[in-house]
């Protein structure tokens, strides 16, 4: 089944693992959860030898253990979970994994945009059916959130702060009363949430101030802030994990040399340090320099080498991909990258004895900068 | 065969199955260590720092055993301080301090070692027991503070040991404490216990499913041991000590010198036992669990190894005292998780209440004492006589028995944290309290704990209350720390303070403030109404000079030469800066003495200059009343001036000596001898250096101007003291500067000395302006003239004139780039230059706008008559005099002046102009015709 999909949802992709965990799970399960909280944690964070399982469960989300624990516990409580953090920190991925582990359905998603309306959260009508048969439960189209309520599952709301305040406020009653009334109907006009229903929302901390959450809504969510990963080792782990997945998806046989991975991680660490010490937004790259951004750079480089190169990943390609991905604003970002190339990459390549990866990285990046500017 | 034989076999089997010989060696070695340590006499009591379980076990054991001698792993030279703990509110730190070092790299100075003591610690129990029980002796046996530095690595002498692990396993990482209560001292702790390398710690944390080391320790050692009996406690502690000892990187021993410390301690114990004849069975040796598992040859009294050779201390003289400490300072110094020491303190209080053990406490100590229940329920505290039983097997095979929170306590916390959060701006309500409670329980369940721990509670509170931003100063995690006991800050009591600090408190008594408080207090001194407060004011000014910023801060009032204070107001935070005051106490017995020493050190230091010496004189006059000491410092300034070979500091020197001279002239009947010597020396010195300074390209104009300022300004005094004016004249004649600014300065000097007239000077300026090749550099000359205002104020009219001409005649391309320079120069030296310039300009230029139209610059009105040699007088006065010349003739005759009357100008006035017009009338007639035509046209 996964072969037919470009990207299978977590519950499909890890169906076998989830089945296995469900079969051995003897812990208490809240509501209608398919796994106990400890097993959910194990599914997300992977197993240790000490857990005594017959098979190894790989780690799927990399980050502080306590974030995952706090998220799971929130879902078991009365409140919704709001994952907040910079773009590319793995909020949506964590939300998907949690939903998949808890109710085996991570697809009940509402995407928050400026155009999201209350109908997307509650319900809408099949107009032709209404004309034909009048308003009834049959002619009603439930939203993913309402579907989650009816089934006692986890509904997801992506980018909550992108949607307008009135749309956000529709969530308040859902989260506190746990039912939705349908005033258009005379009977059977209330949809009650079954036990196990909860909402995982994600919000981008860079969007703060666009559509601020009301305090009433804030009160109904527990906030878990996901920071940008700065630990080099876990970052390398994440990049490796996600890249392997991408390679598998594209069916590409290509080796990512560890030295190139080091170059990528190091240059991102340097760029972050530069961004942290910058005094104005003009001196900062527009990109958040998150781990997802690194994966993007690497993916770009891999695809480029696969289809236009000699099927080996070279440091030149990596350098030009990095510039290509990070240079978004024409004069500012290019100037920052140019400065970075002169001030940081050049000395590093000088220290590189022989033909280390920095030399090629320097050339590739330079070429890309001169092409773009 | 010992009691541990079955355990040993079990471990060997396990090692064989999983690891191999190396693992087997480690595991059986650990059991051997436990076996060995338990059998030793004197009884070894393994402890861990900031561990309530250790403190509890210690209190129990001391009550049972009642030892007569307690050996303590603490620097032996800190012993006299222990009695002073009675006067303090814990936590405080024992401090050894040396400001001047001998035998260590000079860059290390000042050396400072602190050993913080908290109430929830085993060492405090031992100290309190020993000091309050008659006939009991407490003997610190660890290496002295001097040895801490002797043994510190000296790879790079420049690096002070504060940033290096200089004190064995108990060393701090030297990070700057949050509140910097310990300053940059090297921290030592009793019973430091932590994995020897990062990977081991990471492994333990990952498998223990905890966030940081303090939580691991709390969950896996602290809580299971809280209610354990003494045998279990001892065996487990030695086991952990031995484990960490055996799992260490190979070079750790060389770096930490732990084994040397153990040799040292055993040698000291043996010496003490031999000297006093105490019975080892009556003694207790309190040391870190790490050292209990020692394998040095001197370990144990039965060992026949040679005593460890203890090197003599260096000649560095150490001072000792107590400084306040705090939980957060301890956490920061020893790399513990924030809040862990506070949580340990809360756990201790709870454990005392629950176990019913009566803890020891120094009599007379301030603060609240935790009390046990009235009906003590001593758990498992039976005295262990005879061979120890194996308690390890049970401990190692069972899950940790956690001492969780009871429901009522958790509920109380949930309510309190919401209240606290509300007060700090969070929109939290009862619903949040319920959510925190529920989340704590769920988190504990997920983490495999029966009841939530404080760490679970903290996580739950952050999850439920913390939203996207922190509304106030503190976030929820910090509020939890406050709730769980908060950061407790100790205070050193009056009696335990050094004499200097006590003296300060005594002398500030009249202010009527409680200076031990940690708040900022406002002191208002109306010195006019209450002259008794004058000594307080003087002391405060000295303290301001000596203590760091913020300790005493004047809000109103100043202290300068010649000022008489009337009213002052001060912000005093002496209680908060107690450490600084205590450290000041290491330097002397009174603040005056400390200040005197510091001034002396500054003036006689290797990098002392004239300015530092003069500054010291000024400080001595301001704070110590001048007198003989100021004279000594002044004499030193003269010495330094004579030895000086550069003039870089001349401006500052001139400014300071002028100020001092003004002060002495106003306050003393005669100038002090050193001032006279300084002026004489300075006159000769600057005369000698003047030609070089003029010629030196690197030297600044400002310096030369300052030298000239000294020479001209103090010439009369210098000449009266026997200096020779010819010296100055010669020096000026010998000067041949090339830089335009200095050339201008030299001209000014010559004009001042009369070697050049003002007209000559003016003519030179005009020449410069008239010469197009020189015009671009004219601003440089102007800069020199501006600087000349200070040494030669009489030239001010000329400077104003030159400047006005420059403004009027210089092309914009030259003038505009120079203007910012001029403004910057004037701003920088506003005090000296601007008043003269402004006064002169005000005299020269008209004061009102209408007057400007009719105004001609004085230099131009002077220049016009110069052109026509004999000005013709005219007007009614001249006519009157011409008509009646007798009076003038008489006066002239009286004065002996020949009488000469010019031809009256009235009839054919106009002289040359009239002649010219008569010769060439055409132009004038044409103008007249033109005017007549214009008049006709306008009509």
From TrEMBL, chain A:
<feature type="region of interest" description="Disordered">
    <location>
        <begin position="347"/>
        <end position="373"/>
    </location>
</feature>
<dbReference type="InterPro" id="IPR027417">
    <property type="entry name" value="P-loop_NTPase"/>
</dbReference>
<feature type="domain" description="ATPase dynein-related AAA">
    <location>
        <begin position="80"/>
        <end position="221"/>
    </location>
</feature>
<dbReference type="GO" id="GO:0005524">
    <property type="term" value="F:ATP binding"/>
</dbReference>
<dbReference type="InterPro" id="IPR050764">
    <property type="entry name" value="CbbQ/NirQ/NorQ/GpvN"/>
</dbReference>
<dbReference type="Pfam" id="PF07728">
    <property type="entry name" value="AAA_5"/>
</dbReference>
<dbReference type="InterPro" id="IPR011704">
    <property type="entry name" value="ATPase_dyneun-rel_AAA"/>
</dbReference>
<protein>
    <submittedName>
        <fullName>AAA domain-containing protein</fullName>
    </submittedName>
</protein>
<dbReference type="GO" id="GO:0016887">
    <property type="term" value="F:ATP hydrolysis activity"/>
</dbReference>
TrEMBL record, chain B:
<feature type="region of interest" description="Disordered">
    <location>
        <begin position="155"/>
        <end position="180"/>
    </location>
</feature>
<feature type="compositionally biased region" description="Low complexity">
    <location>
        <begin position="158"/>
        <end position="168"/>
    </location>
</feature>
<feature type="region of interest" description="Disordered">
    <location>
        <begin position="363"/>
        <end position="385"/>
    </location>
</feature>
<protein>
    <submittedName>
        <fullName>Uncharacterized protein</fullName>
    </submittedName>
</protein>
């Amino acid at each position: 089944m996964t072969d037919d999909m470009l990207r299978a949802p977590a519950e499909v992709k890890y169906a076998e693992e989830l089945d296995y965990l469900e079969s051995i799970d003897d812990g208490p399960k809240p509501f209608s959860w398919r796994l106990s909280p400890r097993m959910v944690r194990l599914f997300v964070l992977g197993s240790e030898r000490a857990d005594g399982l017959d098979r190894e469960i790989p780690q799927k989300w990399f980050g502080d253990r306590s974030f995952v624990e706090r998220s799971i516990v929130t879902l078991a409580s009365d409140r919704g979970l709001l994952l907040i953090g910079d773009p590319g920190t793995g909020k949506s991925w964590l939300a998907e994994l949690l939903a998949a582990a808890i109710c085996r359905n991570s697809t009940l998603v509402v995407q928050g945009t400026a155009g999201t309306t209350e109908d997307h959260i509650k319900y809408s009508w099949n107009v032709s059916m209404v004309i034909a048969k009048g308003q009834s439960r049959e002619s009603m189209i439930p939203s993913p959130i309402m579907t989650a309520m009816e089934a006692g599952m986890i509904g997801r709301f992506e980018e909550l702060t992108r949607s307008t305040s009135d749309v956000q406020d529709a969530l308040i009653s859902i989260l506190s009363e746990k039912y939705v009334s349908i005033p258009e109907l005379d009977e059977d006009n209330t949809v009650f949430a079954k036990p196990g229903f909860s909402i995982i929302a994600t919000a981008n901390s860079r969007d703060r101030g666009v559509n601020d959450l009301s305090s009433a809504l804030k009160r109904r969510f527990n906030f878990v802030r996901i920071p940008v990963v700065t630990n080099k080792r876990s970052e390398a782990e994440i990049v490796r994990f996600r890249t392997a997945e991408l390679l598998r998806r594209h069916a590409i046989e290509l080796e990512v040399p560890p030295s190139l991975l080091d170059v990528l991680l190091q240059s991102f660490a340097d760029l972050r340090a530069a961004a942290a010490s910058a005094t104005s937004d003009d001196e900062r790259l527009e990109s958040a320099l998150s781990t997802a951004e690194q994966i993007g750079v690497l993916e770009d480089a891999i695809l480029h080498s696969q289809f236009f190169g000699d099927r080996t990943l070279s440091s030149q390609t990596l350098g030009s991909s990095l510039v290509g991905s990070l240079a978004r604003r024409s004069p500012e970002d290019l100037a920052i990258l140019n400065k970075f190339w002169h001030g940081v990459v050049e000395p590093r390549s000088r220290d590189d004895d022989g033909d280390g990866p920095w030399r090629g990285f320097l050339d590739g990046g330079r070429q890309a900068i001169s092409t773009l500017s | 065969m010992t009691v541990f034989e079955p355990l040993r076999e079990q471990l060997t089997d396990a090692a064989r199955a999983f690891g191999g010989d190396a693992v087997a060696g480690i595991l059986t070695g650990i059991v051997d260590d436990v076996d060995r340590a338990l059998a030793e006499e004197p009884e070894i009591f393994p402890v861990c720092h900031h561990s309530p379980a250790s403190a509890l076990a210690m209190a129990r054991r001391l009550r049972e055993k009642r030892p007569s001698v307690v050996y303590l792993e603490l620097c032996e030279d800190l012993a006299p301080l222990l009695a002073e703990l009675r006067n303090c509110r814990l936590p405080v730190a024992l401090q050894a301090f040396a400001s001047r070092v001998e035998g260590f790299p000079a860059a290390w100075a000042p050396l400072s070692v602190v050993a913080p003591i908290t109430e929830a610690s085993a060492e405090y129990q031992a100290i309190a027991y020993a000091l309050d029980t008659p006939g009991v002796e407490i003997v610190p046996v660890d290496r002295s503070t001097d040895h801490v530095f002797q043994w510190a690595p000296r790879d790079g002498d420049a690096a002070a040991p504060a940033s290096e692990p200089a004190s064995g396993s108990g060393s701090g990482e030297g990070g700057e404490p949050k509140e910097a209560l310990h300053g940059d001292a090297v921290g030592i702790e009793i019973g430091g216990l932590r994995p020897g390398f990062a990977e081991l710690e990471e492994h333990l944390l990952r498998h223990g499913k905890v966030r940081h080391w303090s939580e691991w320790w709390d969950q896996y050692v602290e809580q299971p041991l809280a209610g354990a009996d003494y045998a279990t406690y001892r065996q487990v502690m030695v086991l952990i000590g031995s484990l960490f000892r055996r799992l260490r990187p190979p070079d750790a021993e060389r770096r930490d010198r732990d084994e040397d410390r153990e040799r040292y301690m055993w040698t000291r114990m043996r010496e003490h036992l031999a000297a006093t004849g105490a019975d080892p069975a009556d003694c207790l040796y309190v040391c870190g669990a790490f050292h209990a598992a020692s394998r040095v040859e001197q370990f144990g009294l039965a060992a026949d190894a040679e005593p460890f050779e203890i090197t003599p201390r260096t000649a560095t003289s150490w001072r000792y005292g107590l400084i306040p400490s705090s939980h957060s300072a301890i956490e920061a110094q020893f790399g513990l998780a924030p809040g862990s020491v506070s949580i340990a303190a809360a756990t201790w209080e709870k454990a005392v209440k629950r176990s019913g053990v009566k803890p020891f406490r120094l009599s007379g100590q301030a603060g609240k004492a935790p009390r046990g229940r009235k009906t003590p329920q001593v758990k498992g505290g039976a005295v262990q006589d005879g061979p120890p039983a194996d308690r390890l097997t049970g401990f190692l095979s069972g899950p940790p028995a956690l001492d969780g929170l009871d429901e009522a306590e958790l509920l109380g916390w949930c309510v309190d944290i919401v209240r606290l959060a509300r007060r700090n701006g969070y929109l939290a309500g009862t619903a949040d309290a319920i959510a925190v409670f529920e989340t704590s329980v769920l988190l504990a369940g997920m983490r495999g704990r029966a009841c939530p721990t404080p760490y679970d509670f903290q996580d739950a509170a952050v999850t439920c209350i913390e939203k996207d931003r922190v509304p106030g100063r503190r976030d929820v995690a910090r509020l939890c720390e406050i709730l769980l006991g908060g950061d407790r800050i100790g205070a050193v009591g009056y009696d335990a303070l050094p004499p200097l600090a006590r003296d300060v408190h005594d002398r500030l008594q009249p202010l009527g403030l409680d200076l031990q408080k940690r708040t900022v207090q406002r002191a208002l001194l109306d010195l006019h109404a209450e002259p008794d407060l004058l000594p307080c004011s003087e002391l405060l000014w000295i303290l301001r000079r000596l203590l760091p910023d913020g300790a005493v801060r004047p809000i109103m009032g100043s202290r300068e030469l010649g000022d008489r204070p009337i009213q002052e107001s001060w912000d005093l935070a002496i209680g908060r800066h107690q450490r600084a005051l205590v450290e000041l106490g290491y330097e002397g017995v009174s603040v005056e003495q400390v200040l005197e020493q510091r001034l002396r050190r500054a003036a006689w230091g290797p990098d002392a200059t004239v300015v530092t010496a003069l500054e010291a004189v000024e400080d001595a006059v301001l704070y110590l009343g001048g007198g003989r000491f100021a004279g000594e410092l002044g004499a030193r300034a003269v010495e330094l001036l004579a030895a000086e070979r550069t003039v870089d500091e001349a401006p500052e020197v001139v400014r300071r000596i002028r100020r001092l001279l003004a002060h002495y002239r106003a306050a003393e009947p005669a100038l002090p001898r050193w001032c006279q010597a300084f002026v004489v020396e300075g006159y000769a010195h600057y005369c000698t250096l003047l030609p070089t300074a003029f010629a030196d390209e690197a030297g600044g104009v400002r310096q030369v101007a300052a030298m000239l300022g000294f020479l001209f300004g103090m010439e009369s005094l210098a000449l009266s003291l026997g200096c020779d004016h010819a010296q100055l004249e010669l020096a000026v004649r010998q000067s041949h500067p090339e830089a335009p600014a200095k050339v201008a300065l030299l001209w000014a000097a010559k004009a001042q000395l009369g070697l050049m007239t003002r007209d000559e000077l003016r003519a030179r300026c005009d020449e410069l302006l008239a010469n197009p090749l020189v015009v671009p550099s004219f601003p440089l000359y102007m800069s020199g003239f501006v600087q000349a205002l200070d040494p030669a104020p009489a030239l001010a009219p000329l400077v104003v004139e030159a400047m006005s001409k420059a403004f009027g005649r210089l092309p914009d391309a030259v003038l505009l780039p120079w203007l910012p320079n001029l403004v910057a120069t004037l701003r920088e030296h506003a005090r000296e230059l601007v008043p003269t310039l402004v006064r002169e300009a005000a005299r020269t230029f008209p004061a009102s706008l209408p007057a400007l139209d009719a105004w001609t610059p004085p230099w131009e009105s002077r220049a016009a008559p110069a052109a026509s040699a004999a000005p013709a007088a005219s007007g009614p006065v001249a006519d009157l005099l011409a008509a009646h010349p007798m009076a003038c003739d008489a006066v002239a005759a009286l004065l002996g002046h020949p009488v000469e009357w010019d031809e009256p100008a009235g009839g054919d006035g106009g002289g040359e102009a009239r002649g010219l017009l008569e010769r060439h009338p055409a132009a004038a007639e044409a103008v007249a015709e033109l005017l007549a035509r214009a008049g006709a046209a306008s009509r």
